[in-house]
Amino acid sequence: MIGRALIEDFPILQQKIGDAPLVYLDSAASSQKPRAVIEAISRYYEHDHANVHRGVHTLGSRATEAYEGAREKVRRFIHARRASEIVFTRGTTASLNLIAKTYGEAKLGPGDEIVLTPNEHHANLLPWQRLARQTGARLVFVEPSPEGILDETRLTQAISPRTKIVALAHVSNVLGTIQPIQAAAARVHEVGGVIVIDGAQSVPHMPYDVQALDIDFLAFSGHKMLGPTGIGVLYGKYELLKDMEPYELGGEMIDTVSLHEATWRDPPWRFEAGTPPIAEAVGLAAAIDYLEGLGMNEVEAHVLRLTESATRALGEIPGVTIYGPRAGRHAVLTFNIGSIHAHDTATVFDSMGIAVRAGHHCAQPLMKRLGVNSTVRASFYVYNDMQDVEALVAGVHHVKEFFGDVFG
Amino acid sequence: MSLDDLYRQVILDHAQHPRARGVLSGDDVRAIDLKNPTCGDHITLYVRIQDGKVQDIRFTGEGCSISQASASMMADMLKGQNIEAAERVKDIFLKMIQGHDLVESEEETLGDAVALKGVAQFPARIKCATLAWKALEQGITDHSS
């Protein structure tokens, strides 16, 4: 069932770009939404909308129930111990900033260390850069292999008694490599620090168990997992969240307020000031239902298979440079064709209906290490199939033909 | 809009063999760095302005064929022009890229760069074509201030 047949469920994927059927290979940037998600959001607005946690009226209760129901659904999806460990945010970026600003500013001081890799997405680099500047802490970068794989021993050895935070992307948004986060978690806990996982590219693609992985904080986005934009999740262990200061202040997050003082509610609401993204939470819950209907084991196997086929097929075409490993890639395939600029490739692809990402993928330090300014990235998800891999291969041949004489 | 309208032969030619690539130095040279942060393209444009004239113009940097061709055509065309004429060419170019029709005399003024007209139909690529010209704009402003 998984694969091309799902296109029935995704209205947007049924269109043509010019004369060519759309081949959507940019899900790592943002996935498309099944009708079930779109309809859940419409239904919510047509029947149940009001503000949450306030009104005593019927709609207020329905909205609250829907919103808190979504929280429970996310809890189950990532196997958190309790729903109060699930904070709704604007997305991965907001979640990571929240941790750096609250937990980070409270816990870090001069000489403390934050361990990360040079391959992180800007969202998992810049908040730590600022935190280090503000607190006098130091960023420690663990060197991955040229293919982007972190050696487990090297990673655990980089964690010292001064390490307060290890911040890692579980899966790289450029190289598709998966990192040994369990070993890092075990080691950082020995020295009394915490592990922060950027799960933007992993949570949408695999069964997740934050307790088994022993993750302290996990950040991910709804829109990369068939859900709407504008909602993301910060998972945090309750014993950490309960001691953290709020990030934003305002309505809904308070216990009592006087003119000169206020006290905060318990997590997760302490971190959700103002009216939250209620409809978006409803949409995310519908996305989780949809993914669970497919089965996350099947989702993972399907996407791994497609990525591997595409990597093999492109690897056989003369002139194609593939960045990162040839096998075991999760969802993303990053490449260039000869000396043809990624934007020129993407424009030719677009003329064939193929949507890919071209650019630096918000990972400029990594691009520099790869020795390029920009690359093409094709990424796969549940609605893609071997036909899309074939379209990509045809696209590469067409680009070579079109620019062949010039850039060969 | 077909690909051939975007990637005209003259554009590919300039992209493959860019004119005026290189560095200028000296007190009378202005160097302008500009980036397109969304894609990573960057240019350093060197302009030597003397006696109200663009005496020499060079560029370095990296980018797609459209940005490289555009920089090359611009440099080719503006070397030796006086500042007012250079500004006029720049204004006409930016007008064309934004999708406005040009009159015949304006098209003649642009020379080879008219080939970039098709870019207007590819909104995602407009910034590629304007990068060098925005650098020039800044160079002229710096000079006059």
UniProtKB/TrEMBL annotation, chain A:
Which residue intervals define the domain Aminotransferase class V in the entry?
Answer: 23-392
Task: Kindly state a single biological-process term from the GO annotations of this entry.
Answer: cysteine metabolic process
Question: Could you tell me which InterPro entries the record lists for this protein?
Answer: Aminotrans_V_dom, Aminotrans_V_PyrdxlP_BS, Cys_dSase_SufS, PyrdxlP-dep_Trfase, PyrdxlP-dep_Trfase_major, PyrdxlP-dep_Trfase_small
Chemical reaction(s) catalysed: (sulfur carrier)-H + L-cysteine = (sulfur carrier)-SH + L-alanine
The lineage's top-level taxon is Bacteria
Task: Return one GO MF term.
Answer: pyridoxal phosphate binding
Q: Is Transferase set as a keyword in this record?
A: yes
| Cofactor(s) this protein cannot do without | pyridoxal 5'-phosphate
Q: Does the keyword Transferase apply?
A: yes
UniProtKB keywords: Pyridoxal phosphate, Transferase
Q: What is its EC number?
A: 2.8.1.7
* Protein family membership: Belongs to the class-V pyridoxal-phosphate-dependent aminotransferase family. Csd subfamily.
Biological role: Catalyzes the removal of elemental sulfur and selenium atoms from L-cysteine, L-cystine, L-selenocysteine, and L-selenocystine to produce L-alanine.
Name by which UniProt lists this protein: Cysteine desulfurase
Q: What is the lineage of its organism?
A: Bacteria, Bacillati, Bacillota, Bacilli, Bacillales
From TrEMBL, chain B:
For molecular function, the Gene Ontology terms on record are: iron ion binding; iron-sulfur cluster binding
**GO BP term, pick one:** iron-sulfur cluster assembly
Q: Where is the NIF system FeS cluster assembly NifU N-terminal domain?
A: 7-128
Instruction: Supply the Gene3D superfamilies for this chain.
Output: 3.90.1010.10
Classification via Pfam families:
NifU_N
Please state which protein family the record places this protein in.
Answer: Belongs to the NifU family.
Q: What protein name applies here? A: Putative iron-sulfur cluster assembly scaffold protein for SUF system, SufE2
